[in-house]
C-alpha cells in the first residue's frame, strides 16, 4: 500500500496498490463519519461497511469500492473538513485526490466503459465543441435547448453521454473573445492593476455576459485588462474522468501561456471557481515546477482580486454605486470557492453596494460536469433540489452565484435565473447590460 497523490509515482496506477489504499482510507472515514452529509460517496461507503458487524472496509468488493468512487464529484468539501489531511495528521488522507487516483487507475486498466470514454472525449474537447456551437448557433440552440427527455436530447445522450433530463447551459451567438477584441478600450487615468482574463470555456462560449461585466467593472476601477493568449479549457473534464495524460498535456500548455502573461506583469483573473481551483491547485500537482508555482501565486478569482485591491495600501475600489441595487440577495457559495480558501470575497464585494446577503451553503451537485453526465441524475438531482429549496425558503429579490454550471442547476430546480457577483456590481455602478449579438 502506497500513500501517494503524485501522478508521477510508479505505483500511482497499480490496481492492487490503489485498492489497498482505498481500504485504508475507507477505514479511516468509517471510523470518523464527519463527512456523511457532504456528498453521496460517504453514505454509499457507510451503507457497505455497516453490512458487516466488524465494519471492516477490507470486506468491500472492488465493485463496491468503485461505487464509492463513482459518487465523488470532486467538490473537495471533505478535504476542508477532514482532520486527517497530509498537512495536519500522520494518516495523510486526501480523499478527493485518492478518488482522482482511483479514477485514473480504472481508466488505465480498462475498467471504464466505452460510453464513459466517449463522454470524456466529448466533454474534454470543450473548445472544439464551443467553437462549433457558436459558429452554427441555430443548430446548437436546437440541440442544447431542446426540451429535456425529448427525442433530440435522447439522441444527444446516446451519442455523447450528456444526460437527456438535465437543463443545459446554452451557447452564445458571439464569443467573449470576439467581443473583447472589438470593444472600445477606455483611457486609464491612474492604473491600479493589470490583469489577463482567463475566460474559461463557460464564459468564452456560453455566458460571455459575465466577461463583459467583469471587464467593465475592472476598467471602471482603472484595472487594465487583456486576454490570456492561447487560453483554452482548463482540462477539468479530463482530470475528473481519470484521463491523466490528456489533462497533463492541456495543463502544461496552459501553464506556459499563463506564466508568459505573469512575466509580462499581469495577474491572472478567473471568473469561474472550478477553473480557478484547477489552475491554483491541480496544475501544481500534475505539471509542477517553477512556472506552475508562479501561475498559482498570481491567479485570483474575479471577486478575490477586487477585494485584495480594495484592502491593499494605495489602491481602492470605486464605491459610488448609483445604479440598480437589489434589496436582498440569496448568494450560493460554490464548493470550489470554499475549496480555494479565499474567504467570502463575493459577498464582501456585493455588500459594498448596500445589498443584504443571505448565504446559501448547499452544493449544487454539478461540480465540473459530473452532474450533467448520464447515469448520475439519481444522485445529482436531489442535491440540486436541496439547493433550490433553500433558495425558495430565503425568498430574496435576487439569486447570485459565481459558478455558471451551478446556476444552471438553480434555473432547472428553482426556476430563478441567477447572476454572477460581477454582474451585480456592474448593475450597481449603473453599467448597462451588453446587448445580445
UniProtKB/TrEMBL annotation:
InterPro entries xref list: 4Fe4S_Fe-S-bd, 4Fe4S_Fe_S_CS, Cys_rich_dom
GO MF entries: 4 iron, 4 sulfur cluster binding; metal ion binding; oxidoreductase activity
Protein name: Unannotated protein
Taxonomic classification: unclassified sequences, metagenomes, ecological metagenomes
UniProt cross-references to PROSITE patterns, sorted A to Z: 4FE4S_FER_1, 4FE4S_FER_2
Signal peptide as annotated in the record: none
All residue ranges annotated as the 4Fe-4S ferredoxin-type domain in the record: 20-51
Keyword terms of this UniProt record: 4Fe-4S, Iron, Iron-sulfur, Metal-binding, Repeat
Pfam families (alphabetical): CCG
Amino acid at each position: 500500500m502506497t500513500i501517494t497523490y503524485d501522478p508521477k509515482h510508479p505505483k500511482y496506477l497499480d490496481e492492487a496498490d490503489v485498492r489497498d489504499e482505498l481500504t485504508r482510507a475507507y477505514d479511516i472515514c468509517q471510523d470518523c463519519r464527519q463527512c456523511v452529509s457532504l456528498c453521496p460517496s460517504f453514505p454509499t461507503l457507510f451503507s457497505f461497511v455497516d453490512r458487516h458487524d466488524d465494519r471492516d472496509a477490507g470486506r468491500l468488493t472492488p465493485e463496491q469500492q468503485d461505487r464509492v468512487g463513482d459518487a465523488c464529484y470532486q467538490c473537495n468539501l471533505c478535504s476542508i473538513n477532514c482532520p486527517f489531511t497530509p498537512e495536519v495528521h500522520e494518516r495523510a488522507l486526501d480523499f478527493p485526490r485518492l478518488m482522482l487516483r482511483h479514477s485514473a487507475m480504472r481508466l488505465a486498466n480498462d475498467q471504464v466503459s466505452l460510453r464513459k470514454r466517449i463522454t470524456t472525449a466529448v466533454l474534454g474537447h470543450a473548445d472544439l465543441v464551443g467553437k462549433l456551437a457558436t459558429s452554427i448557433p441555430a443548430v446548437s440552440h436546437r440541440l442544447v435547448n431542446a426540451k429535456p427527455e425529448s427525442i433530440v436530447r435522447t439522441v444527444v445522450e446516446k451519442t455523447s453521454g450528456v444526460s437527456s433530463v438535465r437543463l443545459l447551459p446554452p451557447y452564445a451567438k458571439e464569443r467573449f473573445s470576439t467581443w473583447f477584441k472589438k470593444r472600445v478600450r477606455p483611457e486609464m487615468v491612474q492604473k491600479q492593476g493589470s490583469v489577463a482574463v482567463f475566460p474559461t470555456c463557460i464564459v468564452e462560449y456560453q455566458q460571455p455576459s459575465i466577461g463583459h461585466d467583469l471587464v467593465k467593472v475592472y476598467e471602471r476601477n482603472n484595472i487594465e485588462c487583456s486576454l490570456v493568449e492561447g487560453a483554452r479549457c482548463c482540462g477539468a473534464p479530463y482530470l475528473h474522468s481519470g484521463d491523466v495524460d490528456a489533462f497533463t498535456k492541456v495543463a502544461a500548455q496552459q501553464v506556459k501561456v499563463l506564466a508568459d502573461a505573469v512575466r509580462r506583469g499581469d495577474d491572472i483573473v478567473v471568473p469561474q471557481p472550478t477553473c480557478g481551483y484547477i489552475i491554483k491547485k491541480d496544475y501544481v500537482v500534475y505539471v509542477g515546477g517553477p512556472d506552475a508555482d508562479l501561475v498559482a501565486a498570481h491567479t485570483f478569482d474575479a471577486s478575490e482580486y477586487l477585494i485584495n485591491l480594495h484592502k491593499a495600501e494605495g489602491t481602492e475600489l470605486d464605491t459610488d454605486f448609483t445604479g440598480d441595487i437589489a434589496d436582498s440577495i440569496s448568494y450560493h457559495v460554490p464548493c470550489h470557492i470554499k475549496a480555494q480558501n479565499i474567504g467570502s470575497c463575493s459577498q464582501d464585494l456585493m455588500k459594498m453596494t448596500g445589498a443584504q446577503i443571505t448565504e446559501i451553503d448547499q452544493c449544487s451537485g454539478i461540480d465540473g460536469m459530473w452532474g450533467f453526465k448520464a447515469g448520475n441524475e439519481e444522485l445529482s438531482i436531489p442535491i440540486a433540489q436541496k439547493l433550490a429549496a433553500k433558495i425558495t425558503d430565503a425568498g430574496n429579490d435576487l439569486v447570485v452565484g459565481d459558478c455558471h454550471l451551478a446556476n444552471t442547476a438553480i434555473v432547472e430546480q428553482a426556476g430563478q435565473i441567477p447572476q454572477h457577483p460581477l454582474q451585480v456590481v456592474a448593475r450597481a455602478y449603473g453599467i448597462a447590460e451588453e446587448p445580445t449579438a
